[in-house]
Specification:
- It is a single chain.
- The protein is mostly helical.
- The chain is built from 2 helices and 4 strands.
- It folds into 2 domains: 97 residues; 51 residues.
- It has a two-stranded antiparallel ribbon. A two-stranded antiparallel sheet has the order 3-4.
- Strand 1 and strand 2 form a beta hairpin.
- The mean pLDDT is 87.
- One of its GO terms (molecular function) is zinc ion binding.
């Protein structure tokens, strides 16, 4: 019996030692899991803080964009109003000038070496053109290219195309 008790005691001690080791291993595992949980909570707090900051910045950007859009719409409204004012002013001026006759082109000067409009001397750099309408001699600056019809002086062009003035 004493030997059996000694064997049982030894077995119980061995079992207690194994249980103690298992308990230590489980405690280490619990400690490790608690550290992971703590890190996960810290990460969660950082992410929540970053999310709040991003949402706040998005709301600020949206408010800024809304204010900018309101300013642009106001500017567009102002520009449309100004355009209407200018159109009314143009119509009023057009009605005032509707009965006014266009001036008659001045005759070409007798000297063939001068421009009929600006009286500048013709030279290598200032070419002479014949107006296709009044036959006056004009320089490049005082004439307009009418495409296949050639060039004409500004006065004749304005008389023929009053909407261009």
């Amino acid at each position: 019996l004493p030997q059996r008790l000694a064997t049982l005691a030894t077995a119980a001690q061995e079992e207690a030692r194994q249980s103690h080791q298992q308990l230590q291993a489980q405690q280490q595992e619990v400690t490790r899991l608690q550290e992971q949980l703590s890190r996960a909570r810290q990460d969660g707090e950082r992410w929540a803080s970053a999310l709040q900051r991003a949402q706040r910045e998005a709301l600020e950007r949206e408010a800024t964009r809304g204010a900018e859009q309101a300013r642009q719409q106001e500017l567009i409204r102002d520009m449309k109003g100004r355009l209407l004012e200018l159109l009314r002013e143009k119509d009023a001026l057009w009605q005032k000038t509707e009965g006014i006759d266009s001036p008659v082109p001045s005759p070409a000067p007798r000297e063939a070496g001068l421009c009929a409009r600006c009286h500048k001397d013709f030279s290598l750099l200032s070419r002479r053109y014949s107006c296709r309408l009044c036959q006056g001699k004009v320089c490049h600056m005082c004439s307009i290219d009418m495409g296949k019809h050639g060039r004409c002086c500004l006065l004749c062009y304005q008389q023929r195309h009053p909407q261009a003035t």
